[in-house]
TrEMBL record:
Region (Disordered): 1112-1222
Name of protein: Sister chromatid cohesion protein PDS5
UniProt xrefs under PANTHER family: ANDROGEN INDUCED INHIBITOR OF PROLIFERATION AS3 / PDS5-RELATED, PRECOCIOUS DISSOCIATION OF SISTERS 5, ISOFORM A
Basic and acidic residues: compositionally biased ranges: 1180-1200
CDD domains cross-referenced by the UniProt entry: PDS5
Biased segments, Basic residues type: 1125-1144
Gene3D superfamilies named in the record: Leucine-rich Repeat Variant
Length: 1222
C-alpha cells in the first residue's frame, strides 16, 4: 500500500482590522498593530498563507505608519515588518526601493530605541534586532540600490549604539548582523574596514569596552573574508608610503595596529606577516625599525612560539636583525627580546645567543640597550630563562669603555641581586648559583675600575646590594645582610668590600678636612689669614674632585656647596662621618642631608651625596658590633658567618678601633667564654686596639686585667700578642710588662716550640709597646734569637724544597718562630728610633735582614732550610726593611742597598712578590717612604702574573690622577733618573737583545702611565741628563748611558705618535748625589755625549718587537673574577732573569698573611678613598738620601748584596730538575 504525503493546512491571518484611517488615535492604532504583531509572531513560515498577508504588507509600509509621530506605533510596525520578512522569506513582498526604505526604518528605530532600557518599547526593539540577526534578513541589503551606503551606515550606527553599555545578548545580535552583512556583500565597502580597524587603534582597545568587543567578534567571525582586505590595507599604507613626516606617522600607526590585531584577531594577519618579513630587508631604516619592533612584539605574545613555527622565514629574518647595519634596528631588536625571554623558553636559546653577541656590539647604544633589558626582568624569568653565562657576559660590560653601558650593566646586576636576595639568604641552591656571585663582580669593578666605574659600582652597592635599612628594620637584619653577602665572596672580594668603607681611611677623613676648610672659608668671607685658608680650601676641593669622573664639575659643585655655608649641613656631614654615630642616627642624618641639598641646590645633589656616602660607615657601623659579636659567640651550623664576623671585627680593630668605644664592656664580658678561642681572640684584639688608640678608653677593672694576664701566658700566639697589647696600654703597664718579660725570659730555653712561638709574639709586642720593660732583658733575648732561632736549620736530608709556600698555621713552625724573631728585632729598632742608640741598634738588624735577602731566605750562606721557611722569611725581611725605611734615619742606611730591596719585586715566589707589593703600596699611599721607592713598581713589568702588573699599574694610575702636580713631580717624574739607574745596575742587565727587550718593557710601563704632553720636556731633559753623570763602575756607567738613550728613544717615539712638541726644558736640575758621581772633566762629558751606546740596529729590533707584542692598555683588561680561580700559566720565565719567578699555585695561596708584619689584612684598593695627599712636596732635610747635588760623592759603594743571581738560578734549576725526575 502506497502512503500519500499529507500537506499541512495553510494558516491564514485572522487580523481583519484596518490599519489606515485618518480619525483613529495613536492608542487605537498601537492596539491594532500590537494585535497584528502578536498573531504574526506566532505564525510559522512553512504553514502561513502569504496571500492573507497582502493587505497588511501594503499598509505597514505606508507613510502614515512609517512616519507616525508615536514611537510605539513605529516600534510595533517595525516588528510586524520583520515578521512579514520572516514569513515571506526568501522572497520579500516589496520592491527593492521599498526594502531599502524598510531597512532604513528598522535601523532608525534601533538607533533611537536601544540607547536605554528605560524605553517602554525596549523589548520590541530587541525583538526587531533578534529577528534581523536570526533570520538574516540583512542579507538583502547588499543587493538593494545604494546598498553599500546603507551597509556602511549600519556599521557606523551599530558601533555608536554599542557604546551605551548594552546587554551581552544585544551585542551578540548586533555582531551577527554585521557578520551577515560582511559575508553577503559581494564587495565590501571601503569604509567598513576602516570602521572595524579604528576600534583597535583607540585607547578603548580593551575587552572592557563594548566597541572593541564588537569589533573583535566581527573580525574573528569573518577573518577568512577580511584577511585579504587587511593585507591590502597595510600594503597601501606601508609599502607605498611617502617619506613625509606625516606619512611616517601613518606608517607607525599602522604597525601599532598590526600589534593590536595580533593580540585580538591574529587570523586577520595571515597575509600581513610575510609582508613584515619583507619590510626587514627594505632600505628605509625607519621602516626596518618599525617592522623589527612590530615582529618583536608579535613573537613576544603568548602565541608567539606558534607564530614563529608557522612563519619560520619571517622568524629567521627577524633574528638576523642583530646584524643589521643600522644601530636603531639593532636596538629595536634588543628591546623586543625582553618579553620573549619571559614567555617562550624554546625561543630563548636563539635570543640568548643574539644578546650575548650584542653585548660586544661596536655601538654604545646597542650594548647599553642589551644590558638594560636585564633590569626589566622578573625574578622567575631571570632564574629559569637566563643562563649564568649570559649574566657573566653582562657583568663583563661593567668594565666597558662607555659610561652608559657601565651604568646599565651595574643597574641590571644590582636589581637582579636585590630580587634574588631573599632566596640567597635562604640559601636556595638555584638562586645562589645564579646570582650570589654578582656582588663579587661589582666589587671588582669598584676596586679596579676608573672613576666612572668606581662611582657607578659604589652607587649600585649602596642602592641594591647593601642598602641602608628603613626605619622599621632591625639593626641585626642589616648586619646579617652583610654576612650573607660575604658568605659568597672569597678573600679578595671580602677585602674589596671592606676597603670601600672609610673604616681604614686615615682620620680625619678627607671630607672632614673639606668641611673644616669650608667652615674657615665662611662662604668666601674671610677676616684674616685669607691666603692660607683659601689655599687649604682649594687643596681640599682639588683632592676630592679628582675622585669623580668629571673633576671640573665636581670642583664646581664643591665650591657651590661651600658658598651655601649652611652650618646644619656641616653638622650632618660630621655626624655621618663620626665612628660613634649609630645606625638610626646615620640613616636619619643622611636622609636629612640629601633632602636639604636637593632643596638648596639640586645640581650638586649627586656629587655631595656621593661624597658623603663614601665617607660614612654605611656598610659597617658601630650598631653592627653587638650582632657581629653574637655571630662569633654562636655555636651553630654557620661557620662561614662566624668567620666573616671575625674578619670584620679584626678589620675594625686594625683600622678604626674608635668604633669599639661604646662596646668595651661587652668585649670585656665576652672574655669569660674561655672555651670559645675565636671569640676571646676577637675581644682581646678589639680591647688592645682600643687601648692603643686611646688609653683612657681601655678597661681598667682588675677582673679584665687578670684575664688578660692569663692570656699573655697562653700557648695561642695571637691571644698572647693581643693580651700583651692590652696590658701594655693600661695604668700599670710598666710593672705588668716587666713581670711578663721576666717570666718569659726565664723560660725561653725550657718551653716547647708551640709555647715558644706565643712567647716570641709577646716579646715582639712588648718591644714595640713597652720598650723600657723589654730593654731590661734585651741582651738575653737577642742572644737567644740569634743562636737558638734564626740560625737553626733542619738536617740536609729532611729539607723540603718542593712546597714553596704555606699559609697561617700550615706554615712550618720554624718559619713562624723565625718571623717572630725578626719582628722582635725590628720592633726594638722602631722603639729606639728617636734615641741616641738608634744607629747601634739598627745596624746588626739591617745586616741580618739583608743577609736573609742575599742568601734567598737564610741568615747564613751555607744554611739549608725548607723552601716554605725561606720564602716566608724573605717576605718578612722585605716587609721589615720597608717598615724601617719609613724612619728617616733608618731610610738613609737602607738606601745604600736600595737595589737589593727593589729586587724583592722579582722574587721567585708569587706570594713573596704579591706580599711585598701590597706592603709597598700601603706605605707609598701613606707617603712614609722616600720617593725613590715608587720606581720599584715598574719592576713588575716582567712579572709572569698579570695580577701583579695590574695591581702596580692601577695604583700608579690612580695616584697620578688624584695627586696634586707637586706630588706627581716628586714621586714619579723626578724619579726617572733613579729608575734608569736601577735598570742599568740590575743584575740581569746586559747589552744582549733579549735583555734589552726587558729594559724596553720596564720603560714602556713607566712612560705609558707617566709621560704626558705636559711633562715630556722635563722627562726628556732628565733622560738626557743621565749621560752627564757616572756611577762607580765604568761598565755600569756605559749600561746607564745605553738605558738613557733607549729612554730618549721611547720618549721621541711617543712624541711623534701623539704629535707632542719636545722643546728644551728651561730649568736646571741636579742629579741625585747618593747614586751618581760627577764626571771628571768637560772633555769626558763631551765624549760621552757624542758616543752612541745603543746601536741603531738594536733600537730597530726593539721597535719591531714592541709592534709584535703590542697590546691594549692593561687598565681595561679583565684579569679574572674575585670569586673563581684563575687559569694558571706554566712558569716559563727566561733564564736570564735574576731568579726564576714561580707563579702562584692557587688563588687561595695569596689570600692570607701576605703581610705577616701587620695585625690584619691589607686593603685591596691601591689608594684608599680617604687618603689625604699633601698639596706640596716634603720639606728638604739633611737626610743624605734627599741630596740632589752632583758634586756629592757617595761614601760607600753600592752593594748589590743579593747579587748572587746565578746561585738563585741554579737552585731554581735544581728544583725543576728534581720535580721532572719524579
Amino acid at each position: 500500500m502506497v502512503s500519500q504525503r499529507v500537506m499541512p493546512q495553510l494558516q491564514s491571518l485572522k487580523f481583519k482590522e484596518k490599519l489606515l484611517g485618518k480619525t483613529q488615535s495613536s492608542d487605537a492604532l498601537i492596539k491594532k498593530i500590537k494585535t497584528l504583531h502578536s498573531e504574526m509572531s506566532m505564525m510559522d513560515q512553512d504553514t502561513v498563507n502569504t496571500k492573507s498577508l497582502a493587505t497588511v504588507s501594503k499598509d505597514l509600509i505606508s507613510q502614515q505608519i512609517m512616519l507616525h509621530r508615536d514611537k510605539g506605533v513605529k516600534a510595533y510596525a517595525a516588528c510586524c515588518l520583520a515578521d512579514l520578512l520572516r514569513l515571506y522569506a526568501p522572497d520579500a513582498p516589496y520592491t527593492a526601493h521599498e526594502l531599502r526604505d524598510i531597512f532604513q526604518f528598522f535601523f532608525r528605530q534601533l538607533i533611537t530605541g536601544l540607547k536605554g532600557t528605560d524605553s517602554p518599547w525596549f523589548s520590541e526593539y530587541v525583538y526587531l534586532l533578534e529577528s534581523m540577526a536570526s533570520i538574516k534578513t540583512v542579507c538583502l541589503i547588499p543587493d538593494l540600490p545604494h546598498g553599500d551606503d546603507l551597509t556602511s551606515e549600519v556599521f557606523r550606527d551599530f558601533f555608536e549604539l554599542v557604546k551605551y553599555d548594552l546587554s551581552k545578548k544585544v551585542e551578540l545580535f548586533m555582531s551577527d548582523i554585521l557578520v551577515a552583512l560582511i559575508e553577503e556583500s559581494p564587495s565590501l565597502p571601503s569604509g567598513i574596514l576602516d570602521i572595524l580597524l579604528a576600534q583597535f587603534t583607540s585607547k578603548a582597545a580593551r575587552l572592557d569596552y563594548p566597541t572593541y568587543r564588537l569589533a573583535v567578534d566581527v573580525c574573528k567571525s569573518t577573518s577568512d573574508r577580511l584577511q585579504g582586505l587587511v593585507a591590502q590595507y597595510f600594503t597601501d599604507v606601508i609599502v607605498q608610503h611617502d617619506t613625509e613626516i606625516d606619512e611616517k606617522d601613518d606608517v607607525k600607526a599602522a604597525h601599532e595596529l598590526i600589534i593590536q590585531l595580533n593580540r585580538s584577531c591574529p587570523a586577520l594577519l595571515n597575509n600581513v606577516i610575510p609582508q613584515l618579513g619583507e619590510e626587514l630587508a627594505v632600505d628605509d631604516v625607519a621602516l626596518r625599525t618599525m617592522a623589527t619592533q612590530t615582529l618583536g612584539e608579535m613573537f613576544s605574545e603568548i602565541a608567539g612560539e606558534e607564530l614563529a613555527k608557522k612563519y619560520p622565514a619571517t622568524w629567521k629574518a627577524w633574528v638576523t636583525r642583530t646584524r643589521d647595519k643600522s644601530t636603531a634596528v639593532r636596538v629595536a631588536f634588543i628591546e623586543a627580546c625582553r618579553r620573549l625571554l619571559s614567555h617562550h623558553n624554546s625561543l630563548s636559546i636563539e635570543i640568548e645567543s643574539a644578546l650575548q653577541s650584542k653585548m660586544l656590539d661596536m655601538e654604545e647604544k646597542v650594548r647599553a640597550a642589551t644590558c638594560k633589558i636585564f633590569s626589566q626582568l622578573d625574578y622567575e624569568t631571570a632564574l629559569h630563562h637566563i643562563s649564568v653565562e649570559l649574566l657573566k657576559a653582562l657583568s663583563d660590560r661593567i668594565m666597558d669603555k662607555k659610561t652608559s653601558v657601565q651604568h646599565e650593566s651595574l643597574n641590571s646586576l644590582g636589581q637582579l641581586f636585590r630580587l634574588a636576595y631573599p632566596e640567597i639568604e635562604a640559601n636556595d641552591p638555584a638562586a645562589v648559583a645564579q646570582f650570589a656571585w654578582i656582588p663579587s663582580e661589582i666589587l671588582r669593578a669598584a676596586v679596579r675600575g676608573d672613576a666612572d666605574i668606581k662611582l657607578g659600582a659604589e652607587t649600585t652597592l649602596s642602592q641594591y646590594v647593601l642598602p641602608l635599612p628603613t626605619k622599621s628594620e632591625d639593626e641585626s637584619v642589616w648586619t646579617d645582610q652583610l654576612l650573607v653577602i660575604m658568605r659568597h665572596l672569597d678573600h679578595h672580594g671580602s677585602q674589596a668590600l671592606l676597603s670601600l668603607s672609610p673604616i681604614q681611611g686615615r682620620r680625619p677623613l678627607l671630607l672632614q678636612s673639606f668641611v673644616d676648610a669650608c667652615t674657615d672659608f665662611n662662604g668666601g668671607i674671610i677676616d684674616e689669614n685669607e691666603e692660607k685658608i683659601t689655599a687649604r680650601f682649594n687643596s681640599a676641593v682639588q683632592q676630592l674632585s679628582v675622585r669623580f669622573p668629571d673633576p671640573i664639575k665636581a670642583a664646581e659643585d664643591l665650591r657651590t656647596f661651600a658658598k651655601l655655608n649652611e652650618t646644619r649641613l656641616y653638622k650632618l656631614m660630621t655626624l655621618c662621618m663620626d665612628p660613634q654615630t649609630d645606625l638610626r642616627t646615620l640613616v636619619k642624618s643622611m636622609n636629612e642631608f640629601s633632602r636639604r641639598i636637593e632643596q638648596a641646590s639640586p645640581s650638586i645633589h649627586d656629587t655631595l651625596t656621593g661624597l658623603l656616602r663614601r665617607s660614612s660607615l654605611h656598610f659597617i657601623n658601630q650598631s653592627s658590633i653587638p650582632t657581629l659579636v653574637r655571630r662569633v659567640q654562636r655555636h651553630d651550623n654557620d661557620p662561614e658567618g662566624r668567620d666573616n664576623a671575625t674578619k670584620i671585627l679584626e678589620h675594625i680593630s686594625k683600622h678604626c678601633p674608635a668604633i669599639f668605644k661604646a662596646h668595651v664592656g661587652e668585649f670585656s664580658k665576652a672574655l669569660s667564654d674561655e672555651e670559645n678561642v675565636a671569640l676571646v681572640g676577637v675581644c682581646l684584639r678589639a680591647l688592645g686596639a682600643v687601648a692603643r688608640w686611646n688609653e683612657t678608653c681601655a678597661p681598667s677593672d682588675k677582673r679584665t686585667i687578670d684575664k688578660a694576664m692569663r692570656y699573655v701566658s697562653s700557648q695561642h700566639g695571637s691571644l698572647a700578642k693581643f693580651a700583651t697589647r692590652l696590658i701594655a696600654h693600661t695604668k700599670n703597664k710598666a710593672i705588668l710588662c716587666e713581670q711578663v718579660v721576666e717570666k718569659i725570659t726565664r723560660n725561653l730555653r725550657i718551653v716547647d716550640d708551640h709555647c715558644l712561638e706565643a712567647h716570641l709574639c709577646v716579646l715582639a709586642e712588648i718591644a714595640r709597646s713597652a720598650p723600657d720593660a723589654f730593654e731590661g732583658k734585651s741582651d738575653v733575648i737577642i742572644a737567644f734569637l740569634i743562636k737558638e732561632v734564626l740560625v737553626i736549620s733542619p738536617p740536609r736530608d729532611e729539607v723540603n724544597l718542593e712546597e714553596e709556600w704555606a699559609e697561617g698555621e700550615e706554615a712550618p713552625r720554624e718559619a713562624r718562630l723565625k718571623i717572630a724573631a725578626v719582628k722582635i728585632c725590628v720592633n726594638r729598632c722602631l722603639s729606639h728610633a728617636g734615641l741616641p742608640s738608634a744607629r747601634d741598634v739598627v745596624e746588626p738588624v739591617l745586616k741580618l735582614l739583608f743577609a736573609i735577602l742575599d742568601n734567598m731566605g737564610t741568615t747564613k750562606p751555607n744554611l739549608e732550610d725548607h723552601a716554605q721557611v725561606k720564602a716566608r722569611l724573605r717576605l718578612q725581611a722585605s716587609h721589615s726593611l720597608l717598615k724601617l725605611a719609613t724612619n728617616r734615619l733608618y731610610s738613609s742606611a737602607i738606601g745604600q742597598q736600595f737595589i737589593n730591596v727593589a729586587l724583592t719585586m722579582q722574587d721567585q715566589s708569587f706570594q713573596v712578590r704579591m706580599g711585598f707589593l701590597t706592603k709597598l703600596i700601603t706605605y707609598l699611599q701613606d707617603r712614609t717612604l722616600h720617593p725613590q721607592y715608587h720606581i720599584i713598581l715598574f719592576l713588575t713589568a716582567l712579572d709572569p702574573e698579570e695580577e701583579i702588573v695590574m695591581r702596580a699599574r692601577h695604583f700608579v694610575v690612580a695616584y697620578m690622577q688624584r695627586s696634586p702636580a707637586e706630588i706627581r713631580l716628586t714621586n714619579f717624574e723626578m724619579t726617572l733618573p733613579r729608575l734608569l739607574y736601577l735598570i742599568a745596575l740590575h743584575p740581569d742587565f746586559s747589552m744582549e737583545l733579549e735583555s734589552l727587550k726587558d729594559t724596553s718593557d720596564y720603560l714602556d710601563l713607566y712612560f705609558d702611565i707617566i709621560l704626558t704632553a705636559d711633562n715630556i720636556h722635563l722627562l726628556t731633559f732628565l733622560a738626557q741628563k743621565v749621560k752627564s753623570v757616572r756611577v762607580e763602575s765604568h761598565t755600569k756607567s756605559e749600561n746607564l748611558y745605553a738605558v738613557s738613550e733607549l729612554a730618549q728613544h721611547k720618549i721621541r717615539t711617543r712624541a711623534l705618535r701623539h704629535s707632542w712638541s719636545t722643546n728644551a726644558y728651561p730649568g736646571k736640575i741636579s742629579m741625585p748625589s747618593d747614586i751618581f758621581r760627577a764626571l771628571p772633566s768637560s772633555e769626558v762629558a763631551a765624549k760621552i755625549q757624542k758616543t752612541v751606546y745603543l746601536p741603531e740596529e738594536k733600537i730597530e729590533w726593539l721597535d719591531q718587537q714592541s709592534k709584535l707584542t703590542h697590546v691594549k692598555p692593561v687598565a681595561k683588561t679583565r684579569t679574572g673574577t674575585i670569586t673563581g680561580t684563575r687559569k694558571r700559566k706554566s712558569p716559563n720565565v727566561k733564564a736570564r732573569r735574576r731568579t726564576k719567578r714561580r707563579k702562584k699555585a692557587s688563588e687561595e695561596d695569596s689570600s692570607s698573611e701576605v703581610d705577616p708584619d701587620s695585625d690584619g689584612e691589607d686593603s685591596e684598593d691601591p689608594i684608599e678613598e680617604d687618603t689625604e695627599l699633601p698639596s706640596s712636596p716634603p720639606a728638604k732635610t739633611d737626610d743624605p738620601d734627599e741630596g740632589m747635588h752632583s758634586d756629592d760623592v757617595p761614601t760607600k759603594d753600592t752593594k748589590l748584596g743579593r747579587g748572587a743571581p746565578r746561585k738563585a738560578k741554579t737552585l731554581a734549576a735544581q728544583t725543576t730538575k728534581r720535580r721532572s725526575g719524579k
